[in-house]
């Protein structure tokens, strides 16, 4: 059964009434300033936001809130909302916490079921509303998240999987629904433990480097009291803004060759780069990032940004440029003026996860090259943000700073949610796929 956009769902009209907007409303210009922060009540497909660094409140302008959502079963008549002209349908359900997704060149959809420790494959026939095959590709993994095919192109030879503590790979030929043998270890040890267990993986367009995102182990740099050999010595031997102690090689994007050799650091100070993606046209590396908690409802904005090699993005001493974290006042004056400002600031605490760029031909032309990011949803905010999929606007391959709601409707009320988006991927036929790990579903969006 295909679920189509419907703004008058019986019994849930109040929840989704805001989704009934006209195309003209969607294009009337972004919300700016205080209005751009908002919360889930203002979310609806087509609503655009533009948050600028100068719009940020001071730390502690509002109290820091603990407001964990209550997951409920998806109401029988509930479906996500999409913009006018788009359709959304339930593609797969009954999955075990589906998270990151990657699509093989033949259209097979590889899905990380992280807590179950396995990778699942769904075979999708172009245009079909349901998968024709559903099989476990590999199991016995350690909190897998990132998936990548290598080398890029029509005939990859390997499937790489980023566990929370390592990187492994499986020999692969197109059409494989099950791994032929045990995985080969590529990187035996990644920093792990504490918080932020997701590790995503991407290869540079020339296939020469493998990039791995590793989030921080804490919110505000616990376990970093003393740098080995003293701060001056540490600074002289490590990349700009590199952390130490239990946070060594964390809040970073790490670099290796495809065999796991030549380790290095690509960029630093990115608190938790969950979604790692390379733009298909420009070749730019992007991160979809969870920023820090504890500074109030609207601090610190999550972000999606191009990641420049050698750049430092602030964590833990600064945020969004030269804004100093009050918990680390005066600790690193040497870094002031050296912090890269992210391209697209998002509503704080939205928990921005999976990221992809639209490279299909089934959406209107203006979507080509734009990004889609999954917002898993807040816990550290008095009124919820996130719980949706957003569209990142690019112009001539460069982010404009503006983003808009693309899929909403996962929140039931101020307490309850039935869906938490995690992964986004472009299917072989140009549909957009969205995974969510609260109800264990994958949704398919067409135009």
Question: How would you explain this protein's 3D organization?
Answer:
This is Pyrroloquinoline quinone-dependent pyranose dehydrogenase beta-propeller domain-containing protein. Residues 80-295, 340-446 form the Pyrroloquinoline quinone-dependent pyranose dehydrogenase beta-propeller domain. Pfam families: TrAA12 (PF22807). Keywords: Signal. There is one protein chain. With 447 residues, the protein is mainly beta. It has a single domain, classed as TolB, C-terminal domain (Neuraminidase, 6 Propeller), CATH 2.120.10. The chain contains four helices and 30 strands. The strands form eight sheets. Strands 1-2-26-25-24-23 form a six-stranded mixed beta sheet. The longest helix has 7 residues, at 231-237. The chain is globular and about 60 Å long. Mean pLDDT is 93; it is low at 1-26.
Name the beta content range: 25-35%
Helix amount: under 10%
Mean pLDDT: 93
Report the CATH architecture. 6 Propeller
Distance between the termini: 17 Å
Give the strand tally: 30
Structural Rg:
21 Å
- How are the strands ordered across the major sheet? 1-2-26-25-24-23
Determine the CATH topology.
Answer: Neuraminidase
CATH class: Mainly Beta
Tell the overall outline: globular
- Report the major sheet: 6 strands, mixed
* Superfamily (CATH H level) name: TolB, C-terminal domain
Task: List unreliable stretches of 5+ residues.
Answer: 1-26
Helix/strand structural class = mainly beta
The helix tally amounts to 4
| Overall structural domain count | 1
Domain Pyrroloquinoline quinone-dependent pyranose dehydrogenase beta-propeller: 80-295, 340-446
Keywords: Signal
Signal peptide: 1-26
Protein name: Pyrroloquinoline quinone-dependent pyranose dehydrogenase beta-propeller domain-containing protein
